[in-house]
TrEMBL record:
Residues of the ABC transporter domain: 5-252
Organism: Jezberella montanilacus
Protein name: Amino acid/amide ABC transporter ATP-binding protein 1 (HAAT family)
Superkingdom classification of source: Bacteria
InterPro entries linked: AAA+_ATPase (IPR003593), ABC_AA/LPS_Transport (IPR051120), ABC_transporter-like_ATP-bd (IPR003439), ABC_transporter-like_CS (IPR017871), P-loop_NTPase (IPR027417)
Amino acid sequence: MTTLVSLNTVCKSFGGIVVADHISIDIHGGEILGLIGPNGAGKTSLFNLISGLYPVDSGTITVAGKPLDGLPMYQRARLGVARTWQHMRLFASMTVLENILVAPRDYPGEKISQIIFRTKQINSAEQALCERAMSILHRMNLTSIAHSNVSDISFGQQKLVGLARALMNDGDCLLLDEPMAGVEGNAYETMKTIVREEAAAGRAICVVEHNVSFIKDLCNSAVFMARGCILERGSVQTLLSSKTLADLYFGT
């Protein structure tokens, strides 16, 4: 399998608090990697390092062979790093569709010269992006609320909108930070289906999730973290039967 996301001896600390201690992980195209561990293990911090919210102290991160060292978040997004957030960070005053349309990697209307001299091309690009956004909403059974204010829809629907926004970035790396927290029923099943489809399309997916059933259903393999370190890695079933995981994660 092709390695699309690679972390090599990545380190990060805040004073005396170590959130990443020589982390090395490869995520392959078509793989769904589970990242599990107790609160404070460093799981979300790892996502913050990949997406550029935190700079690394040392080590390297590459996506599709391209180094991310020193790049700001927006440039990493343009290279294909997409993520969701524990707290969804949706734009509360905007509609569902508008929230999704902020996320494409390349939008020609960002340059003033193109707005002035290439109006026809920009209008065509906007139409194509709108059609793509509606197609993603259709996959999630959310077309009926496309023009609803995002603050007026259910929590489960908001979680799906967060995922839809990440999917508008069609790059190689998809980071899902607790996508199932507070999600149940139809939204839960839809989320699983979409994640499977994205992996089948060749994306490298990493999921931070406390819902063990979700991890068991979806992930090819998993990494168990605690105190900024990788303690164990392997199949999900192997990790769930680990005494180390039981002691640190479940408190047994």
